[in-house]
Amino acid sequence: MTKRVVVGLSGGVDSSVAALLLKQQGYEVVGLFMKNWEDDDTEEFCPSRQDLIDAAAVADRIGIEIEAVNFSTEYKEKVFANFLAEYQAGRTPNPDILCNSEIKFRAFLDHAMNLGADMIATGHYAKVRERNGLFQLLKAEDGTKDQSYFLYRLNQAQLSKTLFPLGDLYKRDVREMARQAGLPTSEKKDSTGICFIGERPFREFLNRYLPKQPGEMQTPEGKVVGQHEGLMYYTLGQRQGLNIGGSRDGNGEPWFVAAKDMIKNILIVVQGHDHPLLLRGSLSADNTHWIAGHDPREHWVYAAKTRYRQADAPCEIDRLGKNDCEIGFAEPQWAVTPGQSVVVYESQVCLGGGIIV
C-alpha cells in the first residue's frame, strides 16, 4: 500500500521541495500549513497570509491537497510563555528548539496521525537513521544548512514517524530542483528568526510584554560606563546596541556583554573580543534530553555546540545527572550563554543536549 505522508508546508522553498520529492517517490502526499502566531499578525512583520498563499500555490503545482491548521493557542502556552519567562529571568532562550519539540513534532504529528498519516515530513536539513531498533538523528549532508541543533529534543516516537527528504541535498540543489519544477517559491528568500518577532526591532517587541528596567552598565571593577534599558534586552557576547563607544577608557577596543547581575540590575561589560570573562572552559546544563533514551558516556570524547552557528568543539561530559550534566571543553568557548542549548554529537550523530545554566 502507498504510504500517506503529511508534509509541513511553510510556504518556503525547502518544504516545497520536500513535498515535491516525496510525491516523485510515490508517496501519497498531503500538505499541512501551520499557523502558530496570531497576536499582532501583520503583513509588515509576520507575513503568514502570504506564506499560506505560497504554500497553496506549491500544493497546486505539485498536485497535492493542502490543509491549514491553527496551533497558535498551543504555541502561546508551550513556546511563547517559556520565551517570556526565560527572558524575564535574564537568560536567552531559543524558541525554535521548543517549537520543534512541542509544535512541529508533537501537535503537528498528532494532527497528521488523525488525518491517517503513516509518516510526517518537514523541510529541515537533517537525517534519521534506524540502527538496532533505535532511531538516530544525524547531521545533514550540507553542513552549512544542518539543522540537527534545533531538533535535539526529538524523541524516539517522533523520529520513528519523521522523514527529512532534504537530508542528503545541498541548498543550491534544492533551489535548482524548485526552479526546474516551476515551483513559485524557487526564488523566495529564506525566512530568518521567529515568526512572532519577524523583521521588527526586538526590543520594541519585547517591551510590550516585559517593561523596561533601566540600570547601569559597569566594568567588572565597578566603573560605570553607561546605562542599559533592561537586562532582558541583552545577551552574552553582544556587541551591537550598547551605545558606549569603543574608547571610553582609552584602549579603543569594542565593548561586549560579559555577565548580568540580576539582583543589582547591572550589566557587566568588558572590552576586547577575547577578554577572559567571555571565555568558558566548562558549562552546566539542565533539562537534558538524550535521543537514544539512554545517557552518553562520561569522560568520553564528544563534540558539542553551544550555539547554532558554531563549529563543533571537542568536549567531555564530566558528570551526568538524571536531568543535568557538566561538560568540559578542550579549548575555552566564547560567550557561553544561559538559556541557549548545548548539543552533543558523536561524529555525525546528534546525541541530545540540554539548556545551559
Tags for this model:
single chain, 357 residues, alpha/beta, Rossmann fold, SH3 type barrels, Elongation Factor Tu (Ef-tu), domain 3, 3 domains, 6-stranded antiparallel β-barrel, 7 helices, 24% helix, globular
Describe this structure in words.
It is globular, with a radius of gyration of 22 Å. It folds into 3 domains: 4-180, Rossmann fold; 212-273, SH3 type barrels; 278-356, Elongation Factor Tu (Ef-tu), domain 3 (Beta Barrel), CATH 2.40.30.10. By secondary structure, the protein is an alpha/beta fold. It has helices at 13-24, 48-62, 72-88, 95-114, 156-160, 171-180, 202-207, and strands spanning 4-8, 28-35, 65-70, 119-121, 127-131, 134-138, 162-163, 215-218, 224-228, 255-261, 266-271, 279-290, 301-305, 313-320, 324-334, 341-346, 349-356. It has 7 helices and 17 strands. The longest helix has 20 residues, at 95-114. It starts with a strand and ends with a strand.
